[in-house]
Amino acid sequence: MEAKLKIGILGTGIVGQTLGQKLVKLGHSVLLGTRNPSKLDEPKGRGPSARTLSDWLAEVGAEARISTFREAANHGEIVINALNGGASLDVLQSVGETYLNGKTLIDTSNPIDISGGFPFTLFVKDTDSLGEILQREFPNLRVVKTLNTLTAALMVDPQRVGNGDHTVFLSGNDAKAKTQVLELLREIGWHDILDLGDISTARGTEMMLSIGHAVMHALNPAEIAFKVVRNKRP
Amino acid sequence: MEAKLKIGILGTGIVGQTLGQKLVKLGHSVLLGTRNPSKLDEPKGRGPSARTLSDWLAEVGAEARISTFREAANHGEIVINALNGGASLDVLQSVGETYLNGKTLIDTSNPIDISGGFPFTLFVKDTDSLGEILQREFPNLRVVKTLNTLTAALMVDPQRVGNGDHTVFLSGNDAKAKTQVLELLREIGWHDILDLGDISTARGTEMMLSIGHAVMHALNPAEIAFKVVRNKRP
Q1: How far is A27 from A23, CA to CA, in rounded Å?
Q2: Which of A146, B138, B159, B203 has the fewest other C-beta atoms within 10 Å?
Q3: What are A221's strand-pairing partners?
Q4: Alpha helices, DSSP H only, in chain A?
Q5: DSSP string covering A5-29, please?
C-alpha cells in the first residue's frame, strides 16, 4: 500500500486535469491551483479532452479541490508545475518561496514559444533550460524535471503506446526528491524511468520538443513515445 | 542484388572511415575525400577505433581510395557529409557547386560547438538547422539529413543495440533522394527508417544531441539508441 500524499498542482489545463484525476484515483489528496478559482465554467484547453473545471470536479469526485495557486502550493508536500512554460516562472513567483521552500516540484513544463506559430520554438535552450531557471530562482525548491516529453494522456497511462515499453526521464539536483518522484511514477505505471543526472540535463528533454513535434506530425494520427534502447558494451 | 553505387565521402574521421568501410563491404565504389590526401599516416579521431588512413586502406582493401574533397564529390553519385558540423559549409564551398549540383548529399553532421567544453552546445538550432543551411547554400544539391543521431558504430551496425529495434530518421526536400537513401539504409541493415518530412525537420534530430549526450553520460558505458514507439490511435 502506497502512502497517501498531499499534492498541489499548479495549472488546470489538460496536463493539470489529467494528472490530477489520476492522482485522485490513486488515493492522493489533490488540490488544483488556478488563476481564477471562481471561474469554474470556462473551457480549459483545446480538443476533445477539454473540460471545464466544473465538469472535471463532477467527474473526478469529492476528493479533488480547486483553489488558488498559493493554496495548491501550500497544500502539497509535492507540487506539480502543470503550467505552460511561459507562465511558470511568473506563477511560482506569485506563489512565493515561503510556500515552496523545501518542497519537491515536479516540473512538467516546456519553454515553448508559440508566438511564431508552427513549428513552435523554445524561449530557452541549449545553454540553459526552464528547469534550471526555476531551480536558480528557487534554490530551496527541489526541482525534478520529468514527464515533459509526453502528452498528458501518456503521462498517466504509458500503456497507451507500445505496451508501456518507453522511457520517461528525470533531471534534478536532489537525490531524495528524485527518489520520491520515481516512486510516484512507478505508482502511476511507469517502468522505464531514466535518471539523467542534475537539473542541467533538463536541456536534453526540453529540446526533444522539436523531434517530438516532427515525429507526431509525420506519424499523425499515431500516438508516439521515445524509448531509450541500450546494451551494455561487451 | 543491389546496384553498385559510386559514393564519395567527405571527411576521414571515425564517421567517414566507418561508413566507408561498410559501403566497400557492400560492394560500392567508395572514394574518401580529405583535406591533405598525402598525409595518410596522421592519427584520425580519438579512442580505440582511431586509425590512420594508411591503416584504414590496409584493412579495407584495394576497392577504397582516398583523394581530395573535390575528387570525392566528383566521384560520388551519392556524396556523404561525414565532416564535423563546424567544417561542413566551408568544405562544401571549397568543393564548389559544379561538383555537387544534382547529387544526393547524405548529411550525417551535427552543428556541435565544442568551444565551451562539455556539455557541448549547438551553433545553430531551433529556428534553423545545419541541414537547412547546407540546403539553402546549395539549392540544387539534394540534402538528406540522416544517421546524425547515432555513433559511427551504430550507423553501420544497428544490431549492436536492442537487436536493431530502434529508429533512424530522414529529413529532406527531395522525395527521390530520400528513397535512394532509404534503400541504402536498408542495405546497411536498418529496418525502422522514419521519414520526418522536409529538411526543416533536421532541427529535431540535430537538437537530439543534448538528450543523446545526457543519456550516454547517465548510462555509460552502455551503448544507446532511440526508438520511436508508436500506436495508431484506436
Answers
A1: 7
A2: B159
A3: none
A4: 14-25, 53-60, 69-75, 85-95, 130-137, 152-156, 175-188, 202-206, 208-219
A5: -EEEEE--SHHHHHHHHHHHHTT-E
**Interface mutation vs chain B, best among A191, A207, A209, A220, most B CBs within 10 Å:** A207
- CA-based nearest residue in chain A for residue B122: A126
Q: What is the DSSP letter of B131?
A: H
ipTM of the complex: 0.95
Which of B229, B232, B233 should be substituted to probe chain A, the one whose Cβ sees the most A Cβ atoms within 10 Å? B229
Q: Omega of the bond prior to B221 within 30 degrees of 0, cis?
A: yes
What span, in angstroms and rounded, lies between the C-alpha atoms of A72 and A31?
5
For residues A112 and A71, the answer to whether their CB atoms sit within 8 Å is no
Phi, psi (deg, nearest 5) at residue A147:
70, -5
Give the model's pLDDT for residue B224.
97
Q: pLDDT tens across A155-213, in order?
A: 999 999 999 999 999 999 999 999 999 999 999 999 999 999 999 999 999 999 999 99
